[in-house]
Amino acid sequence: MAYVLLWFPLSSETFIFREIVQLRELGLDIRVYTMYGAALRGCSREMRDYAGPVTRLGVAAFFRIWGAFFRALRARPRLVWRLLREGFFRRMRNLEALGENLWCFMAGFLLAEDCIRDGITLIHSSWANGPATAAWVASRLTGIPFAFTGRAGDIYPEDGLLREKSRDARFIRTNNAANVAWLSRFCPPGEEGKVRLVYNSLTFTERAPCEIPMQTPFRLLAVGRFARTKGFPELITALARLRRERVPVRLTLVGDGAWRGRLTRQVKRLGLEDCVDMPGFVPHDELARYMQTHDMLVVPSVVHSNGDRDGIPNVIMEALSMSMPVVATDVCGIAEVIRNGETGLIVPQRDPAALACAIRAMLADREAAQSMALAGRALVETMFDRVRNITALADLYAEAAAEVAQ
User: What's the CA angle centered on 383, arms 381 and 389, to 5 degrees?
Assistant: First the structure.
């Protein structure tokens, strides 16, 4: 089967990397096809050493993509023109999404030839946006069934082709329950059942319990892309409030991205330079070290005005798997894992005062914090169990293959 992605491996997509590795360990013949070139910066040695077959397109494939397009146009002009009318000139959420969709649409013509050459029997996209567009085009050209996974920002707000891709997909996998009803809206009447929930698997291979030192100054940890859905401005505002209330706290903000300048300016404006550390991007295999030395993880996710949002940030499961206390906001599927007062504390999004209050409450009672963290560890070890979830995913692929064989 084909796994279609923009990049592979990608340092921020360890969960997809592990998924592919674990499926291959079960015996599935998986071939990865990326729409872009290599992006190995920040990847662990394990990711760099991946030995499975990977076909990368990117700029180097520009002329081959156009060659595949013209070959398809000569062989099946009516189908190609129908695809162009249906999928090429579509309104997207922004220029970046438009460019990605146009590239992936055209790359789908070369992907179709590669899938035939490699004997692919199922095309799966790990994201619902550009990669799923390429998979959809390749499927329409070849008749090979395709499926996709819808996660977070790839389906909120909806991709301009989400309805067409949902119509033609053999199944749609999602990794949190909050997405099931949303994705079902785009399926044809009577086919809502094609949306299937299979959670991700835990990505940390070694999970020693966190120390939870709870010694002043208290140390907060936040991890993620510096982007609009992460809510880091609200966290920095909450930190300033805690400092005004003379709560001795420090924040380590791990990550990088387009909003780095904005966050840096906010830290300076609020006079927090002495208590905010921004070490930049940290490779996944080094993240556990940060969790070991901090008192809690704070996940202040928000829903952007256009609907963009997180699903269940994987860092939550990683922290809980190490028995680290978590404070988070009530966005999308987060409440499936952070059950308020049981496995962590959860507060409304975009409410720095409530966020500061929850952080203060967690810091004030180490015993309760540790109890919630241990309950969280038990929950994620069940909900995100590697063997169970990878087996469920493999069974979903086998079910699709059986339907095709009939």
Answer: 100
Distance CA(59)–CA(53), nearest Å, equals 20
Long-range contacts of 80-85 (CB under 8 A, 24+ apart): 83/137, 83/140, 83/141
Token pair recorded at residue 405: 């064989």
The kind and range of the H/E element at 391 are: helix 386-405
Q: Is the preceding peptide bond at 188 cis, omega within 30 degrees of 0?
A: no
% of the chain surpassing 70 pLDDT: 99
What string of H, E and C letters represents the secondary structure of 307-345?
A: CCCCCCCHHHHHHHHCCCCEEEECCCCHHHCCCECCCEE
Q: Which of 280, 298, 282 is nearest to 290 (CA)?
A: 282
Distance CA 238, CA 35 (A): 40
Alpha-carbon distance of 116 to 113, in angstroms, equals 5
Q: What is the pTM of this model?
A: 0.93
pLDDT, mean over the chain: 95
Are 157 and 93 in contact by the 8 Å Cβ rule? The answer is yes
Q: What does the alpha-carbon distance between residue 41 and residue 369 come to, in Å, rounded to a whole number?
A: 36
